[in-house]
Amino acid sequence: MPRPPTPSQTVGPFFGFALPFVRSPEAVAGDIAHAVRVEGQLLDGEGRPVPDGLIEVWAGSDFARCRTDPEGAYHALLRKPSGAPPHAPHLEVTVFARGLLRQLVTRVYFPDEEAANATDPALSRIEPERRPTLVARRQGDVLHFDIHLQGPSETVFFQL
Predict the structure, then answer these.
(1) What tens digit of pLDDT does each residue of 46-100 get?
(2) pLDDT higher than threshold 50 for residue 25
(3) I need a surface site. Which of 2, 39, 75, 124 has the fewest CB within 10 A?
(4) Is 138 within 8 Å of 111 (Cβ atoms)?
């Protein structure tokens, strides 16, 4: 007789082991001139901060991992990737948080890449009114990108 499937479990809790992910000082120093800082908050469906999430950000071969703080804030310092037409430059983001059965995957597009964003195949498949949830906002030298897990401002997530 076959066994019943094992029930799903949520991801987490997350512990501080290997956090933050720190690259060698030489690698960071060499990247600073071409680096972009991305920061934002991880928010639940009611707009409250998620204080115990884990955010991973990929930019080509560059990688950053950050635990969210009590305000749900995260930040990453990476090199801006170049796009490979027809794909616009973007960051790949993976979200792990309590209550999720699986990690969530989204993208961060750059606000200064309007022409490339307009022809990006993934971004073009999303309803026009939801596309802004994937485009960061420039605030001085920083790109601001909040991740909304649910609600009216829910970030678009991709199914892998």
Answers:
(1) 999 999 999 999 998 888 999 999 999 999 999 899 888 899 999 999 999 988 8
(2) no
(3) 2
(4) yes
* Strands of the 54-59 sheet, one edge to the other: 62-67, 54-59, 90-96, 104-109
Amino acid letter, residue 149 = L
Q: Nearest 5°: CA angle at 27, between 21 and 33?
A: 110
* Tokens standing for residue 18: 């290997």
pLDDT at 29: 45
pTM above 0.85, yes or no: no
Residue 121 has which token pair?
A: 């195949």
* Token duo for residue 58: 């990929």
Measured in residues, the chain has a length of: 160
Q: Which two tokens stand for residue 125?
A: 């498949």
